[in-house]
Specification:
297 residues, Rossmann fold, 9% strand, alpha/beta
């Protein structure tokens, strides 16, 4: 029973082992000091040892509880954004952007298509990944260079160190936007499928990628519809309290006020929504369709 509790606590907080060792080591040092002082003052080693043993137990408990309390407080600690700004400021004096002889325009001409980012946003289960995969396949069939960035895949790799706190969600989107920017500079079309629940984060992404390079697609679906499609069981876990900060349940989703493309998956099928996206891309001249495919849009 005790072992299960310790293992569960260890899994919940990887710092618990360090805090325990820190508590024990410091209290042993402090208690040895108390024993020696008690012995010197009273001349009775047994009396000093009793005081030391009592102090070791009581102060260890108090110290550990105090340490755990402060471990959960962010008071006095800089936010991730503040730390990032400090790091950028410190690095800015000796970091310089390097440019080669080949430009983005050169790469786009070689690839035969303009590079841009198609950013899908919406609730979990709204259909972002489904539409993203279909659009990727269609663009590839046109002979265009295209790549998908997905929320789950990036969190399994480059963003595996991020939680789902509001602060880490912002950092998640910032990193993804920087990746999109690099892909676009390489002349590649990027399809980014991310919940991206906060309007400020989506605006940040647009600024990083470039207003003219990002197309925001709002995949609209009600929470009830998303729950019915919940193949991963995430909504139920969130409702049961097993998932914290889950968008649509315990964390808000800020609906885009003016997306470039709005599609609804509540009542419209995949093909109908795909046609709407294809039409936008062709009418805005972001892509040049093969003659055989012009009538299909």
């Amino acid at each position: 029973m005790i072992t299960d509790i310790i293992l569960a606590a260890r899994k919940a907080d990887p710092l618990i082992k360090r805090n325990l060792l820190k508590t024990i080591s410091w209290r042993i040092v402090g208690s040895i000091d108390t024993v020696i002082l008690g012995w010197l003052i009273t001349g009775n080693f047994t009396f000093g040892a009793k005081i030391g043993a009592t102090e070791l137990l009581t102060k260890m408990i108090l110290y550990y509880g105090h340490e755990r309390l402060w471990q959960g407080l962010k008071f006095g600690l800089p936010s991730r954004k503040a730390k990032n700004e400090l790091t950028r400021s410190a690095n800015s004096s000796y970091l310089f952007k390097q440019s080669g002889k080949i430009t983005r325009k050169d790469r786009e001409q070689l690839n035969g298509n303009a590079a841009f980012t198609l950013w899908f946003t919406g609730l979990s289960g709204s259909g972002k990944s489904t539409l993203a995969a279909e659009i990727e396949a269609w663009l590839f069939q046109q002979g265009l260079r295209v790549y998908i960035l997905d929320g789950d895949n990036t969190r399994l790799g480059i963003n595996s160190d991020l939680s789902f706190s509001d602060e880490d969600r912002t950092e998640n989107i910032r990193r993804v936007a920087e990746i999109c920017k690099l892909f676009n500079d390489a002349g590649t079309i990027v399809i980014a499928a991310f919940i991206s629940p906060f309007a400020a984060d989506r605006q940040m992404a647009r600024q990083l990628i470039g207003t003219q390079n990002m197309v925001e697609v709002f995949v609209d679906a009600s929470v009830e519809t998303c729950k019915q499609r919940d193949t991963k069981g995430l909504y139920q876990k969130a409702l049961d309290g097993k998932l914290k900060n889950f968008t649509g349940v315990s964390s808000p989703y800020e609906t885009p006020s003016n997306p470039d493309i709005w599609v609804s998956t509540d009542n419209c099928g995949v093909e109908e929504n795909l046609q709407q996206i294809k039409k936008y891309l062709s009418q805005t001249a972001l892509i040049q369709l093969k003659p055989a495919n012009l009538e299909a849009v």
